[in-house]
Amino acid sequence: MPDQLFPYQKLFEFTKAIFQKIGCSNEHAETAARSLVSADCRGIDSHGVARLTGYIRLWEVKRVNATPEIKIIHETPSTAVVDGDSGLGLVVAPYAMRVAINKAKQVGTGWVSVQNSNHFGIAAQHAMLALDHDMIGIAMTNASSLVAPTFSIDKMLGTNPICVAAPAGKEPPFVADLATTTAANGKLEILQRKNSPAPNGWIQDKDGNPSNDPHELKKGGALLPLGGDREHGSHKGYALGAIVDIFSALLSGANYAPWVPPFPAYVPIPSQQPGKGIGHFFGAMRIDAFRPTDEFKNHMDHWIQGFRNAKTIPGEERVLVPGDPEREVEIERMRMGIPIGDVVAKDLKKLAEKFEILF
Amino acid sequence: MPDQLFPYQKLFEFTKAIFQKIGCSNEHAETAARSLVSADCRGIDSHGVARLTGYIRLWEVKRVNATPEIKIIHETPSTAVVDGDSGLGLVVAPYAMRVAINKAKQVGTGWVSVQNSNHFGIAAQHAMLALDHDMIGIAMTNASSLVAPTFSIDKMLGTNPICVAAPAGKEPPFVADLATTTAANGKLEILQRKNSPAPNGWIQDKDGNPSNDPHELKKGGALLPLGGDREHGSHKGYALGAIVDIFSALLSGANYAPWVPPFPAYVPIPSQQPGKGIGHFFGAMRIDAFRPTDEFKNHMDHWIQGFRNAKTIPGEERVLVPGDPEREVEIERMRMGIPIGDVVAKDLKKLAEKFEILF
């Protein structure tokens, strides 16, 4: 069955209604729906409404608090630690990013580490909140452990993404949003559905041997850090994932390393919990805290045009600038609708029935 | 001929004397020598005294100013832009890092972007200055373009390294220092000397085809971003290198992308110079601007021990924590001496003769 196309507004209203049904305030439901559906818009289907049921299940087992009292528990002029009170990361993250932006307005930059949160959707959605303020936005999060560090069999880190968004002038903004693994889990899921082999360097089996079986994770295997193996720089991907963990959880007091609570509600929380919930980290840097904004933007335009005009390798039409693919998908989907696969559509219908709302 | 072993102090004094001979003040010569020889100590031989002749040549062609007036040209409570006045990056970087540390003392964090500088040695040396202050240190720099972004034939970025250093308690600090390429240029140079093939994903030829020829760079080829190719995540390595360029040069007003001046003095500066010199970026985050330092350090110890105790893949003895290999080399070399190869030893002898000092 071909994917059905849904207008953004319909998915947004539906998602908002579901979040209201579990008790979220109007404002929180709107924020959460905007965070979530932004992933579908930008083509990151694995992180969009496909996960709505997952969030609801976390609420059902009382691991998500629908009415959190999100608050700053420690701060200095340029920093804060936010306690998410077990709220949806989709709501906690924009709150924390706003704190970072407000601090940047005051003292040039703002840096916020978050404890006691849950999965926040895609990092880009939060980092990009800085763009309207002529700031560079940074967002990262830890996640439950699927990734084996270089030389390790044990899964010690999540896919721990990093996003940096920087404004340009006439050109669209630079938005780099990357999992610190060779391939994001969502890409592996696509291969699983097709039963296609995974490329070298994506995964290893339960004994730490390289594998091309896309189902390896279910058999005790692990995702590999960006680089794949030592010879190809996996120690760098591992280090980047570790940095995300330190900024997100060690600075905030959240859980870290293999002790981060998993997203699927049926997977038990690790018995050892050195911190609270999962951790995020946000930054905002005011451009004019460094140099005049128009000078920066002119140079960003020049930078971007330089990359766009670079000569391409055989068989490729153009060199992309980080953010190009997602923006192009977004333009297309806002015009034509968001394609939703059969499985996800059925999932959403079930949610609609359970909560007695229309879909 | 086997490598000769030199005590740290001898290399330090010699390097300091050379820098004094070109006109550096006693203080600058000491700082520069400490920055440079720290690379040899930590086993990053490509960035240590092997480059001393290179720095001197830059001074000879008037691209390095031995008596720079390094100064802050713009600032807010948490940010600054530093003008390096064409000084040695080895001196400019510690100055800028100190500015970041002092701002962190005042408002929690400090962030400094630097223009008009030169090659700064290894990033770790500067980031680690934060550790003594119970701060996380961050250092990055752009560099002349050797790296082709995903799908590009043109070399648009340098190897643009990122370093993050975080203090622990009983455990030694976490220090991740990584070029955003699959392999640092220094590793390729080792293969060139042995005439050994380079692994897949390290380099491409002048037409953008994958290559294993370690001499490819001299023939118009390029280093590849961490990941190697699109299927293995090279767009992520490319994005990371781009982020370093934006923070280091677009925020400061230094040159960026393919317009960064090259390190070898015989390579002409690109005719287009949109900024000044090369750019760096430094950050310092006070731990207790987020949470009590002892809590953080206890959790860092727990984190590090968790990784050390992870089960290893077949054939490997242990899982390393970022910073382990360099620290172990440093302990060994401070005790046994620093091995200097024949070519570099001859180079240093020539410098000694030229400046009429003992070596």
CATH class designation of the domain at 183-223 in chain A: Alpha Beta
- The geometry of chain A reads as globular
Task: Give the strand order, joined by hyphens, for the main sheet of chain A.
Answer: 2-3-4-11-5-6-7
Largest sheet of chain A: 7 strands, mixed
- Uncertain segments of chain A are none
The most extensive interface, with participating residues per chain, is: A-B, 88 and 88 residues
Write up what this structure looks like:
Two copies of one chain form a homodimer. By secondary structure, chain A is an alpha+beta fold. The first copy, chain A, has a domain at 183-223: 2-Layer Sandwich (Wheat Germ Agglutinin (Isolectin 2), domain 1). Helix content of chain A is 37%, strand content 16%. Chain A has ten helices and twelve strands. Chain A has helices at residues 8-21, 26-41, 52-60, 89-107, 123-127, 185-194, 234-250, 293-308, 324-336, 342-354; strands at residues 4-6, 71-76, 79-83, 109-117, 135-141, 162-166, 174-178, 203-204, 210-211, 222-223, 278-286, 338-340. A seven-stranded mixed sheet of chain A has the order 2-3-4-11-5-6-7. Chain A has a three-stranded antiparallel sheet with strand order 9-8-10, with no helix packed on it. The first copy, chain A, has a two-stranded antiparallel sheet with strand order 1-12. In chain A, a hairpin with a 7-residue loop joins β6 (162-166) and β7. Chain A is globular and about 50 Å long. The two termini of chain A are 19 Å apart. At the A-B interface, β4, β7, α7 and α8 of A face β4, β7, α7 and α8 of B.
